Amino acid sequence: MRHRLILIGLLLLATGAGIATLSGTKGQNPPNNPLPAILTPIAPKAASQPATAVMPATYVTPASTQQKPLHDLSQMPAFTRQVHTSALRGAEWLHGVNSPVTGRFMYGWVTALNVPLEGDQYLHQAGAAFALSRAARYFGDERYTLKARQAVLSLMAETMTDSQDTNCRHTAFPAIAVNRLAAAGLLLMAIHELPAPAEDLLKQGEELANYIRKQQRDDGSFRVVEGTDEAPKDIEAVLTYPGVALYGLMLSQRNRPATWKTDAVRKAIPYYSAWWKSSQNMACVPMLSAAFAEAYLLTKEPAFAACVFEMTDWICALQYTKGDARNLAWIGGFKNFAAGQPLASPPTVQSAAYLEGLAQACRVTRQVPDAARYERYKDAAANACQFLNSLQFSEDTTRHFAPNHRPLLLGGFHVSHQDGDLCIIANRHAVAGMIQFLAFAADR
Predict the structure, then answer these.
(1) Residue 193 above 90 pLDDT?
(2) CATH number of 428's domain
(3) 295 vs 220: CA distance, rounded Å
């Protein structure tokens, strides 16, 4: 009997040990997908830091070397402070997804699957570099300046001087792969938004400007596809690229002023003003408005202001208000427009693109002056900022994600209230537009 009790005790001990071993292996949670390498900073761990600590998504400058902020949030009205914080978080997201090795931005992230978003191209990278350059200028953050400069240099490394004219520069890719007119415009925008761009970069920027100059026809329009006068099949190219090129020329007036640049915009306005009146497409409005606004601020010529007002009045009429929004979350977003009619479809982060034009129009109304239009444009821009703020991932709206997934999302603007995917296109427009609102239309 005694031997039997001893045998039973040994069996129980062995069973307990097996259960303990099983719980220590099979019972653990499976590892979550790691953050992409872009977002994992290389920094030594403190001795007291646990080995399993989650590293932040972006590198934070030590307090001893942080620059004094250019803007005092305590002196801002509540809404201005909200927009400032939102724009800063968006800039931090762009900074965080830019690789310190390649200078390129992660294109996007499919949040539901925790995998990278596909579809990147050169123009998207150039647009993100422009937005981070603008953030560096506005916020005065050296970290943004360093990343933005590296991004621009990385993109410029894939350009070349023209074999027929060494005073012209364009992308080295075949024209069918990357639209050279749009690339030149975006790179010019990025270069001249940089705080104190280097002399060699400014020289290359002038070569890009010369390329844009050569693409303008006698009637003021641009050859959107190099080497042909035929209209491209890509509707985006027809609608947006001329405005991008013109805006790039006007921003380059900051550091490399030239009469011919304003002349090019003056030559373009009759053609594109008439063209927009006949087509009335939303996509062309933001960049054309921005370019014509910059031209007006330089020349004070009424034709530029008139075109800005006409397009901006039309865009404002397409914004959702309390009276026509089917959902309160739509207020501040913009309807679509097709076949000559507005479409009451759910607004998306594409609404951010119109914020740039609205903010620029506010600048023009102050110079004309036009108090009624100023208030209307200012309210429209503020409502657009409020709508975009509802599409930005925050601490509260990321609580349902795994802890090591959240740093990738915080500060990013997702597509819509039904689509949580992130993309640098959306963030570029949101950050750039909000900064323009803060600079030219926000209450102080």
Answers:
(1) yes
(2) 1.50.10.20
(3) 15
